[in-house]
Amino acid sequence: MKSNKTLINLLNSVLPVLLALLIGAILILAIGENPFEAYGIMFGKSLFTLRGLTNTLHAAGPLLLTGAAIAITFRAGLFNMGVEGQLLIGGFMAGLVGAYLHISNPFLHKAVAFAVGAAAGVLFALIPALLRAYFRVDEMVVTLTLNYVMMTILEYLSSGPFRDQGAGYVTTPTIDQSAMFTRFGSTRLTPFFILALLVFGILWYLNAKTEFGYKIEAIGKNPEFSEATGLRVRRSIIMLILVSGAISGFAGAGHMMSQEYKYTLSFSGVTGLGWDGMLVSLLGSHSPLGIVISSIFYSALKTGADNINMYTSIPKEIVAVIQGIIILFLSIRFLNERFGLLEKLSKKKGEKNGPAL
Amino acid sequence: MSTILETKDLTKKFGDFTANDKINLTVEEGEIKAIVGENGAGKSTLMNMLYRQIPPTSGEIFLRGKPIEFQSPRDAIQHGIGMVHQHFMLVPSFKVYENILLGTEIPDAKLRFLVDSKKEQQECAELVKKYGFDLDVNEVVENLSVGQQQKIEILKMLYRNVDILILDEPTSVLTPQEVDELLLQLKELKAQGKTIILITHKLREVMEVSDSVTVIKKGQIIGNVKTSETNEAELAQMMVGRKVLLTVQNDHSVQESPETIYTVRDLTTNNTYGNVVVDHVSFEIRKGEIYGIAGVEGNGQSELVKLLSGMMEATGGTVHYKGEDITNLWANELRSIGIAIIPEDRYAQGLCKEMTLSANSIAGSTRSDAFKKNGVYDSKKIREHCQKLIDRYEIRIADFDGTVSQLSGGNAQKLIIAREMRSQPDFLIASQPTRGVDIGAIEFIHQQILDFRNRGGAVLLISSELSEVMSLSDRIGVMYKGKILGEVDPLETSETQIGLLMAGAVPQEVV
Predict the structure, then answer these.
(1) Which of A48, A269, B12, B318 is packed most tightly, with the most Cβ within 10 A?
(2) Which residues of chain A are under the pLDDT cut of 70?
(3) What ipTM, to 2 d.p.?
(4) Tens digit of pLDDT for each residue in B301-327?
(5) How is chain A split into domains, by residue range?
(6) Tell me, which fold does domain B260-509 have in CATH?
(7) Do the chains contact at B341 and A224, CB–CB below 8 Å?
(8) Is A217 on the interface with B (CB under 8 A)?
(9) What CATH number belongs to A2-337?
């Protein structure tokens, strides 16, 4: 039974990817290029060269965290779709700490920036958490819409009060050297990746070994049971959304200090690290190992786009197409998890209720 | 008499589980056919197939000798088969006649989009009169008792001119008086030419009202007998497949000590709609005593249990345990001071079906150091603990690492009891402890409760099975509309007397 379920989970994750790559291959063929060569370059350069691999790992750091931030709420039957917004405010606040607080000790400076970033994520997540716990407002809708609120607020702040007047475009001032992570040698990899792995590891250790994880599982699978055994469901819901917010804010701060160094309007990239995290979590079936693998795979896909552009005549948008198709397939899975889509579509209405004893 | 309904090799499978195995049922026109069997024997599945709520896996149904295949319950009704479910499907804010005609409203003669409510009322009143029901068609449903609501369900079917009426466990929600009334009603319907299929597991009703009996066990027909040629003991033996032992009984041999361990004073609470559902409930339980709470379901017992087990907040009143105020404590806090809780709904509150056996075995004491090593969970300790429970309570499992969903109802309940009894509690709250479990498990659970009491423990037993409360309790409080109407001694009180209390009769007449 158990191995069967694992297999299905694995297929659930691998199949959308394979199908997306297949459809991508058809498109590449239609352009008149060799898909094997294209994919070879894409994954070869981003996974099997030192430079490519370190780039990939570097980009996977924030994804690992945003994936985890989403996974812990998903497992509890909650849907924090606000990871993007929480990451943005975390990154922005860390940027302000980095630029305006001049702390000469590099450890302390980063620590303060992380703390402020995570705290900002928590505070922002407090809104949907309280609304959900006390007024039963669907946290999915609130977190989803608040992303755009936060984007707009930060657009104002970075183009107004905190704009770097010397720059020719909208940006906050660059953070101090003491707040920047130093790279390992000539690679782009920084200690932040190690830190992200560490936080991720701690999170899953807590999940597997303490009441924290027991609560997540119990609340996700049966809230009434959780309440009846004395797990404070309401308090736990608030706590989980806040933890998710903290991780997102932390990820944003790390992204600020290891990659961006200043807050611009494209701080989080095109699809956005928070949205990518959702994909990573879904692709990895919300399981720890799954998230590690899928964050690296997804990051390889993203870094591979540049290589395709560089070494072939295939437009790099092909990667966006593949991403889009993966998202499409995964969203079917998401709808199924959240709303029981397939069950509703199947006509055998009487069957689904199981034995009527 | 001619055969009106017949099934041939009717089979229903849910995955690997065969709920109905080649059922050949024959129902004669104008008879009352009782279908009996234990919970989970497959009675409801069979009826749901006849009523086409679920499609059969294989087999055929014949109506008046012709093979038929209904497409939906509506189709079944048009062919003259109607069903009254165990759980009513009425609109509480509508009037009686509106509920009867729901879906078949009579349009106004001139303005077709309006409903001719006058004509509707008239037709319903005639219907009520024709079948001798005592019901006001203009009453709003939510003001009616459960028994009256059931009449509406029956009238709904009669209005649609069904010839065959299926009743699924119709008496499980009724007071003894209401049961008698229903049985009379069924005889009246039979006299008017209706065929009735009565699903039940209560043998007294079968003996009283039916013409023939079909016994189902584990999805198969065990026997068909004429009611006049059998007796309760024989039917019971057929149902369980072995001679029924005398149920475990409280012999009242242990003298309870005068020490009061649990005191509830004026406990009151509202439900989410603001209605008072538990109304100044007070009682005391002494050491070595089983205090039973009887009542028709829906009179505040569920809410009382929730209040006492930390799932609901009291708006007034207090609960004291061993002299300490424990009002509104959380469930895990209650457990940590020695109160064991067997919740009402085993899969909603007692266990988490999708979690493993061992995860369920530590529920309620997830903070206990007994399961930890260096402050974090030690899976070895947890598994050992779970294995101990399984061994000691002889819980039959298929896969130790699997989830609780593999367990049968009785074994799931055993797991809850094993878990709750492990920490040597002094007080046990047992709510519907044997609901839906087989007779073997019932005996086991009853014995556990009595043993616990005999060791000096105090028990609060809440059950809608009157016989269970009667045979186990030392004292019984009867709940009606959120209040405890009266307290009786089971040795000096008859079921009829308690039945009157359950129906809200003034207590002075009884005690």
Answers:
(1) B12
(2) 1-5, 341, 343-357
(3) 0.78
(4) 889 999 999 999 999 999 999 999 999
(5) 2-337
(6) Rossmann fold (3.40.50)
(7) no
(8) yes
(9) 1.10.3470
